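2024-03-11 09:14:02 DEBUG pipeline.ingest accepted 1 chain
2024-03-11 09:14:02 DEBUG pipeline.ingest length=429
2024-03-11 09:14:03 DEBUG pipeline.predict start
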Amino acid sequence: MAPGGPAPRGPRPNAYQPPQAWSEQPNVQRSPRPASTRPAQPDVRAQGPGVSRYAPTQRPEPVPGGPRREPSPRPPSNGNGPHGPGGNGPNRGRQSAAPAPAPGKPARTKRRRRFPFGKIALVLVVLLVGTSVGAVFYYDHKLHRVSALSDYAGRVADTPGTNWLIVGTDSRADLSQAQKNELATGDSDGSRTDTIMLVHKPTSGKAMIISIPRDLYVPIPGQGSHKINSAFNFGGPHLLVQTVETLSGVHIDHFGEIGFGGFDTLVDAIGGVHICITQALNDPKAGLRLSAGCHDLNGQQALGLVRTRAFPNADLERVVNQRKFLSALMSKAISPGVLLNPFKLFPFINGAIDALTVDQNDHIWDLMSLAWALHSDPITTTLPTGGPVSTDDGDSLAVGTKTKQFFAALAAGHGVDNDLISDQSGVVK
């Protein structure tokens, strides 16, 4: 034993030593720590002789060199940078993602451009309307016009409804000799009204087609009494209108005239008219030969049908056939097969323009209104008369009491009594 007391006990050889903390290891050189910006924490651990008992604090200490900065956001790659397909970063070979939408705002999607069907349809409608309006004024300008409804002393004032006076003349002035031979019209000079019809459109109800017999014996202003069809030969359309107005007391609003030369062209323009007849017809004077039954009449056959008087009642039966044919012609003219087919519509319009003569104040829209009124089952009748009478002009028909009653009802705007409307006859069904 050492003098002065027992010697200190050292570690025994090969004795187990527990691992020591870095701060407790002897002979370890430690670099001085940088000054902290935080207040030093007291070391509460016991200090052994010759051993530093430093212990780090439990709070994270600042990074040496100043406060730590947050990394700046990386700009989006355009595919050619170090992080794009051409670079060496982790995004190589990938497309850069689109930036996320801001919170609270919906993501913007790329709108697909729509085909402007509405605008194209509007342009087509405007073009169609403009073309139609232009065509109406063009054809209106081409109409043949005469002064048929000019005023005269004591003319009948306006009466209810709308009244057309439509005449078919036997004028051959516009026909060549070949056409006269083909249509079997003969070579008569002058111009007489082969057909006289009064079309009455009341303020309400069906239209009426009224045939005025051409042999009706009436006073003609300035000419004495004659058959009514001679008024046209004496003074043209104006004198005929004045004669009808003076006789009937009905104001005539519109006038239409068609001759032999235009009638057949008008029928051919719409591809013919379908007509059924109850008996065979054979009239060399009218150039007509038809069997009983239904036929699609061409222009030449239609002209022969409305001209023929080869019946027991002669002209009285002929006017019935004329009315029925006129109604069938108007019905065909405004049918979809014609209106929707430009190869029929425009030839028909051109044919109507060439064939018709109207008053100087009439227009093509007046003709369209007339066609519409006649296409749907109008009332057709022959003006009642006082019966046959012998006159200086030969066998004629007298004006009777029923004739005056009939015209008085039209002039007053009243419906015509059924006993004044003749029963349907004729060979046309």
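2024-03-11 09:14:41 DEBUG pipeline.report The chain has ten helices and 15 strands.
2024-03-11 09:14:41 DEBUG pipeline.predict end
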